[in-house]
Amino acid sequence: TAEIGPGAGNEFPVGSLSKIATWLDEVWPPGGYRQRAAAVEKALAEKDVAAGFAALKDLRDDLRKSPYPAYDWRYGELEKALLELARAPFESAKKLLDADPIAALEETETAAKAAKGVAALEKEVAARLAAVRKDPRVVGALKQRDAEAAARKLLPKAEEAEGKGDLALALSLFQKIVA
Questions:
Q1: DSSP letters along the chain, please?
Q2: How confident is the model at residue 11 (pLDDT cuts 50, 70, 90)?
Q3: How far does CA 125 lie from the centroid of its chain?
Q4: How far, CA to CA in Å, does 50 sit from each of 116, 174, 175?
Q5: How far apart are CA 53 and CA 45, in angstroms?
Q6: Is 131 a residue whose pLDDT tops 70?
Q7: What predicted TM-score, i.e. pTM, was given to this entire model?
Q8: Which long-range contacts (CB under 8 A, 24 or more apart) does 169-178 make?
Q9: How far apart are CA 65 and CA 47, in angstroms?
Q10: Mean of pLDDT values over 147-158
């Protein structure tokens, strides 16, 4: 029931707040799920995917022990928010593919580690990680990085061979560097 005085129109019945709070406690009784939901919300605020899903699992377990169907919508909202939080770094990494493929790969791998153990995302994470690893831009950038690293190792040897007068070895090493 709502107590609305004369002339109140559509305004919220302020005088009944204590009655509404009492009613809410009867409809939504204090329980472990409140603290567990708060833990999920804290993890969301801190952007801690692993802690959020651990807290969500605790919340689900508590709701299974003491079913409270009226709270199912809230559980669904928390789960949805956590899934969005876990997926966000993958989208961010995907945007990097053109500008910096190696950074995109590193961000995807970091996001995959953060989502590790989240059953709801295991297949999706594996697919996203595999797609980035197979992306031609990433494959090309990794080959180039490896070639540059090999060249940095060979250059001192080529210069040393040239300095010693072993021009055949120096030429061979310089050709490997250029290739």
A1: -----TT-TTS--GGGHHHHHHHHHHHS---HHHHHHHHHHHHHHHT-HHHHHHHHHHHHHHHHHS--GGGHHHHHHHHHHHHHHHHHHHHHHHHHTTT-HHHHHHHHHHHHHHTTT-GGGHHHHHHHHHHHHH-HHHHHHHHHHHHHHHHHHHHHHHHHHHHTT-HHHHHHHHHHHH-
A2: low
A3: 10
A4: 8, 49, 49
A5: 13
A6: yes
A7: 0.63
A8: 176/150, 176/151, 177/151
A9: 28
A10: 84
Sign of CA dihedral 156, 161, 165, 169: negative
Q: How far apart (Å, rounded) are the C-alpha atoms in residues 151 and 129?
A: 29
| Tokens 């939504």, residue located | 28
pLDDT of residue 77: 93
AA identity, residue 127:
A
- Backbone phi and psi for residue 4, each to the nearest 5 degrees, phi listed first: -120, 120
Q: What is the mean pLDDT of residues 23-52?
A: 82
Burial class (CB in 10 A: 0-12, 13-18, 19+), 33: buried
